[in-house]
Amino acid sequence: MVSYSALRSIAPETLLSDFRDTILATYLVGSRAYGTSTPSSDEDYRGIFVLPRDAYLSISEPVCQIADGRHNTTYFALKRFMELAAGANPNIIEMLYMPGDCRVYESPIMQKLLDNRSIFISKQAFASHINYATSQIKRAKGQNKFVNNPQPEEKPSEIDFCWFVPIQAGLDQFPYRPIALKDTGISLSRCSCAAMEHLTNAYRLYEYDSPTRGVFRNGTIVCDSIPKSDEVTRCVGLLIYNREHHERAMRDHKNYWDWRQNRNDSRWQSQQRGELDYDPKNMMHTYRLLLSGESIIKHGAPIVRFEGDQLRTLMRIRECQFSYDELIAMVDDKHREMADAMMHCQLPEYADRNQIDHLLADITAEWERTNGYGQCEAN
After folding, report:
1. CB–CB of 202/232 below 8 Å?
2. Is the distance from CB of 141 to CB of 235 less than 8 angstroms?
3. In the CATH hierarchy, which fold is given to the domain comprising 1-120+348-379?
4. What is the pTM of this model?
5. Secondary structure of the chain: what % helix, strand, coil (to 5)?
6. Dmax of the chain from CA atoms?
7. How far, in Å, CA of 239 to CA of 180, rounded?
8. Residue-wise pLDDT tens digits, 35-49
9. 378: closest CA among 4, 9, 23?
């Protein structure tokens, strides 16, 4: 018996070697499938694997997706694949319409899924493709934000988000005006604090002559029990910690350095030099998604491999031959064309989930018969 619990934490290469018989299909996806690749384009793969029915008879959820660290290779369990396809997920729907040269492997059983691919096509493709296209626009501008707002290697310090209100302002100062803690000369390593009643992120601050355990411990403010004798003699004022802004700065720092680690150098350098105010690849995918969604609405099938004028337009976008404003105008025009096409669309509102349930059961049963898994070990 094969233990399918082992699938929970494996890498795609292990799936391909030790669980080869579970794989229904492997496809070369992305720009190489769309016809928009360049010599430096990555090779990305997506595929489908199947689990026996017994794998779902467990109090633990069965594995639904296996991917490498950068998600260049991703495999979906058949059930999860069908769930996403039923919702008109563009990246999933296109796997049912791959060009022949991108079909790395297809099990004979996969043909049953391909023969019934039309049951996943519905009017939901309108919203799903537009939503995905919108996310690409945000990424196109968001990466420009990274380029023009580089982050230092050092993480944001809590101190930069701390403010101090002295007990008594000087004669030439307005009372109760917060000042940046780093401008006061106060060292939090020589301080303790106590929470202020009825206020969030505000603390009474007590300064001592020698080092204490500090106010921040492992990145968190820790309040101490302050002796009554210190309340008057040691209290120097109020500490205000803008926790929300610090956490946001930490997220921005992480997102920036994640992007720096995974960026495409040839693309970001042109943005850094000020030659572009958007990421051309993301904008190309924006328009590609709209073209494919429009094809579903009008013809009942997505476009995966682009050709002719459509391909030339996509490559012109990738080669930065349009301004950002021109591209947004093109996107808006295509959006309106899709909305007009929806007025005459004959597709069902939603995919028929009963049909999909039966198809899932049929494919799983056929896979079990073919591979001799009448009774497989449950997770």
Report:
1. no
2. no
3. Beta Polymerase; domain 2 (3.30.460)
4. 0.65
5. 50, 15, 35
6. 89
7. 10
8. 999 887 889 999 999
9. 4
